[in-house]
Amino acid sequence: MNPAGAAAHDPGARPGRDVALMSIGEVLAQLRTEFPDTTISKLRFLEAEGLVDPQRTASGYRKYSWNDVARLRFVLTAQRDQYLPLRVIREQLEALERGEDPIGHQRPSLVAVGSETEVAADTADTRVSRADLVERTGIAEQLLTELEQIGLVSSRPPGWYDGDAVVIVEAVVGLTRHGLEVRHLRAFRAGADRELGLFTQLLAPLVRQQDPAAKARAAETARELQALSQRLHAALVRAGLRDTLGR
């Protein structure tokens, strides 16, 4: 069976015992074309969370069927496109196993974050120079310096900026066009720092563990916390603006 045949399998089916079985490395190669951030640790983590159940050889090696790959693709797609937590994804898979339609089955209504989602996918790998950052975002040099002084943007290593810095600067440029000043932006930095402190406390027990599965769980938890925080913030602002606009 060729790779295209994987899509024909039902992700809700319990892992099939197909004749053609794949190693974890082969599965990773299949998924990375569509989900480049996937790692072996991530696949092991999803197994530990009960989202996939590969067979084991007598020596303990994992062997995946095409149904296993379909389930993994379902999980990774739901995470990437809908920001669903694993609990909800697991419930959707269970609904599929029962022959139910999971659409709307405890699926949260999410607000799309637009182009920021695309940028966030590779923020850690993006590197732009100061000149490129200024040209790309249209920010004034003086404003960029002020943002660095209040800690809203930082270069790492010195002289180079990552993808998050690009997102921050683009947002700031947009806000300043509406009349916001640098002094107003300090509140955003303070709010983010408070949130970061809370999330760091939640993640600390997992980060301290040396087990690779715990590291993967920490990264997954961080992703879910970030997505939930964005939803909460957006909903609070929308609710407040409705009152302001008299809606």
Automatic annotation (TrEMBL):
InterPro entries, alphabetized? DNA-bd_dom_put_sf, MerR-type_HTH_dom, MerR_fam
Q: Which Gene3D superfamilies match?
A: 1.10.1660.10
HTH merR-type domain: which residues? 43-95
**Which Gene Ontology molecular-function terms are recorded?**
DNA binding; DNA-binding transcription factor activity
Span of the secretion signal?
none
Please verify whether the record's keywords include Cytoplasm: no
Keywords per UniProt: DNA-binding
Entries under Pfam families matching the protein: MerR_1
What PANTHER family does UniProt report for this protein, alphabetically? HTH MERR-TYPE DOMAIN-CONTAINING PROTEIN, REDOX-CYCLING DRUG-SENSING TRANSCRIPTIONAL ACTIVATOR SOXR
Q: Under which name does UniProt file this protein?
A: MerR-like DNA binding protein
